[in-house]
Amino acid sequence: MALFARTFQSRELHDPGFFRAIFSNTWLAPLWTLARLYVGYQWLMAGTHKLWGDNRWIAVPGPDGLALKAFWERAVAIPAQGRPPISFDWYRNFLTFMLDHGWYRWFSWVIALGETALGIALVVGAFVGIAAFLGAFMNFNFLLAGSASINPVMFVLALLLVFAWKTGGWIGLDRWLLPALGTPWQAGPVTKGIAEGDRREGRVPRARRAGGGTGPIPRQA
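^ that's the sequence the OP posted. Answer follows.
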């Protein structure tokens, strides 16, 4: 039992030096900026083409999402010969379910607006880690649907930007956003101030209810 306890005791595992040098060193911020701008530009172009133009996905004279519907229909089709675009049956069943329920009408808005928002966030360097993670998730879904194109390259770059979340937006808005807002495990001045204000507002009503009135809260001796 003592050996078992020592094996699973709480301990902190540190990242290797080369990992910190690559992903946490601000000297490499220009390199991650180039990767970020490339990925952001690709998402921005993909999203704006779905929002505006003759080939847009949404706000069309007919039903929205017909282009997405056609893409899903090609993805779930099983050819008589050869390999189908989707290799996993569970994902084909998932797309079929969305097709049967007409989800392409509103899901096209999610994709178009989401791609545009991701592109803007990455270009300006705001919340790079979150934006890159969501972008990698979208690339992963395109790959599951059998669409290769530049998705493998985008997926790898997005994962690297997730690892470099501290320096990926150093030449961007994250240089000021991250210190101000902080992280879920270390709050920044802005989030601390909001939390402190909420705690104060929560204490005042309770104190007034305890006093039975709406006047000033009596001080304790």
